[in-house]
Design goal:
Helix content is 76%, strand content 0%. It contains five helices and no strands. Helix 2 crosses helix 3. About 7% of the residues have low confidence.
């Protein structure tokens, strides 16, 4: 009797293990087939889904890398241009005082005008003309005045 029970338990366990083995093999084969379909190219001359996915990911990564490099390069150029403009502005303001001390003293009374000239050095000549006209107007409109600031300002910088 005990032999029969042990034998039947062994048969049941063997049957369960065979059924589980078949199910596991079927599941593994299904997974294997899915992976193979994803990796292998299709028969229509189309690339595999993996190749399409890889191509898309690489295109996206290349686009982002290109944009980052471009942004970095443009930022470096912008910084260099800003620095050059700042130097040109400082030279324009300082050269006014060197070329015409009276205009330099007059310009020092206008900090906002100095800021405008620093940002756009090409406006130095125009600004000096306006300051000269203002000084002439305060002088009663007489050209020359006590400091000779009514004549148009001519910069030798070529800015």
């Amino acid at each position: 009797m005990l032999d029969t029970v042990i034998l039947s338990v062994i048969v049941v366990l063997l049957t369960v293990s065979l059924v589980l083995d078949l199910l596991f093999r079927r599941e593994v084969k299904g997974i294997y087939d899915d992976i193979r379909r994803f990796v292998e190219p299709t028969g229509d001359g189309e690339p595999s889904p993996l190749a399409g996915l890889t191509d898309s990911v690489l295109d996206l990564a290349a686009g982002k890398l290109t944009a980052r490099v471009k942004t970095t390069f443009m930022g470096m150029q912008s910084g260099a241009a800003r620095a050059e403009k700042a130097v040109d502005g400082a030279i324009a303001i300082d050269s006014v005082g060197v070329e015409n001390p009276a205009m330099g003293a007059l310009l020092s009374a206008f900090p906002h005008l100095q800021k405008v000239i620093r940002r756009n050095p090409a406006l130095a000549g125009f600004a000096m003309d306006k300051l000269g006209q203002m000084a002439a107007g305060r002088n009663g409109g007489k050209p020359g005045g006590s400091q000779g600031v009514s004549e148009p300002y001519q910069s030798n910088l070529g800015l």
